[in-house]
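To whoever picks this up:

The nightly regression suite flagged Rap1a immunity protein domain-containing protein as changed. Nothing in the input moved, so I suspect the structure step. Input below, exactly as stored in the fixture:
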Amino acid sequence: MLLGLGAVCASAMSIREMRTLEANEKDGKLYANYYLVGVMEGLREASDAAQRAGQKPPFCVEGRKLEPTMARSLYQTELSRNADSYEADMPVQLVLSSALRNSYRCTH
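Regenerated output under the current build:
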């Protein structure tokens, strides 16, 4: 029962927490990559669900390449392009969501 509660109460990782994980943990970069892939897959599922429900999705893959290995580069590119827009306490999910919206704009 406690495990289930922990999953429900879990919060998103901040940019600062991601950087700390990468810098201080033995396999931190690997763990961070897995986290980014999970965030990306969750965002993609949410976008697909919105589209299935007849809502406008936040981004559209539309047959373009979007693979788990791309999560890190999408995240880093968004942080680099819009560095002034993000503070260290903002969630990683926000950065990746913006990256997907900017890279996979809906055409219809």
